[in-house]
Amino acid sequence: MDSEFLGTVEIWTDGGCKPNPGPGGWAAILRYGETERELSGADPATTNNRMELTAAIRALEALQRRSAVRLFTDSQYLRKGVTEWLPGWILRGFRRKEGVLQNEDLWRRLSELIRLHDIRWQWVKGHAGNRWNERADQLATAAIHAQHGAAPKPVCEAEVFLRVATAGRSGGWAALVRHGGDQKVLTGSAQGVTSNALDVLGAAEALERLPEGATVAVYTGSDYLRNGATKWLPAWQKRGWRTQEGDPVKNRDIWERLARAMAKRKVEWPVCKGAAPPELKELGKTAAEAAGKG
Predict the structure, then answer these.
(1) Is residue 98 part of a domain?
(2) Among this protein's residues, is 14 annotated catalytic?
């Protein structure tokens, strides 16, 4: 690596409009060692592609020295534009073979910045559970909403990923908890419990470890846990912890514990069926090990 370069900077970018064209937002996350910086902005009248380009430009402009960069984007327009099409556009005076180059002003600025750094451009699938891609999307979306004076969807301060496993009469759960740049894995086990009960227990314990008032996204593959937390709990409480059929709610004690934890925090329950975050897969072995110790 050139002696001018002092390590590799990771950059994650995203941009979009709602509708397209229309009000847009962009975001970038810069990571260097233990240091992390988030950038975002908005434009009242733009396009998805302009916001994707703007995110990359603003991120590269934020670098204060010549850097080695790995830039991650879910935009094929941006990645292919830089790696395949840009050299030809430059040779033709920033024109396409067919004529006018859209977003010429941004491509010109991006080409200037590219010459200052050693950049590897990597495409990632959007909305597929990648932590940094999802965070950039949240920031860009919040920037779009902020233009309307409406309260944007909260950008979660913390994340919880939860898996459970059973082995005979023993059960275990494992939760990855992220908050404030730190992360830890929590585990627990119990005897004679169902997977459903373990899901509720693990979620309650993980939330209790987070500060009151925090905005938290809980990722789980359990429909029982997600539906219970988002749809069934209020009705159960109104009916004195009885189901619609009048039967006592199963696992009431831990549901009450989870309800108390949720009441002190702002909790979201993203649906991740078919696009499970990789963290959930990695936690499977940890949950099985916890079950074996129960």
Answers:
(1) yes
(2) yes
